[in-house]
Write the structure tokens for this entry.
Amino acid sequence: MRFLRTVGLPCCLCFYSSLAVAHGQAASSIATAGPAASRTVRLAAEDWPPFISRSLPADGMSGAMVSAIFERLGYAVKYEYFPWKRAMQFGLGSPRYAGLLAVWRTPEREKLCHFSVPIGNTQGVLAYLKEDGAPGATLAELGKLRIGTVAGYSNGEQFDGMVARGQLRTEEGLNDATNLRKLLIKRYRVIVIERHVLQQLLMGRGFSKADRDRIAVVDTLFKERSVHVCFQRSAEGAAQQKRFNEAARDVDTARLERDYWKRLDQSLAAAPAEP
């Protein structure tokens, strides 16, 4: 598992305990999901650390937040993981699932989902190799470069619009880890990636300190965007969305998010560096 290999089991357990102490009721739904809740809701997801991942305490930051909110409704949450396109297919169409996470909100997806309140905030960055120099200060300056993106991901209205009009040259990869490896071997000149995801990948096994030292980012090209639970576009999905959003008012999600990132950063900083 990526997190355990990164920071070690003792660090992982310490992280989980700290989160439980800080958030009490929010974390208890995960620690005592069996007897504490009489019902279970299933959500499909792509493994996308540190937002949602089977390898992280509480299934990642967004997983912790969603579980805390559903606990207010008397539900335990079971996350089932798939590649992104299958997560979309099952989360939106299978009666086994209430929906999927973590999803960026777009006008096109409004037709497919009943979106929850935010379950985390993301910041896209443009990653590049230091030895190749900064690629440009605006999206318009990237027109001739090969840009790595992930298949099925939205990268914001401006970026997606420029791609649709042929103003940006993109190539879709399977996932962020694959794209990062392609960047390091210069298959891509730049890649679009979320900043927490980039940090998590670079600190994990499979990427060395030498790799980390080669990477730089431009962090001014993309707006901060929230991610959401995408409940199925049905009467039942609308009712689940309404109950979820009402329960979220009783959870200090801003504090949960802030504390999760703080403890994760501390765990990563304490981890032994890969050679």
In short: The first strand starts at residue 39 and ends at 45. The chain is about 45% helix and 20% strand. Residues 65 and 253 are 7 Å apart (CA to CA).
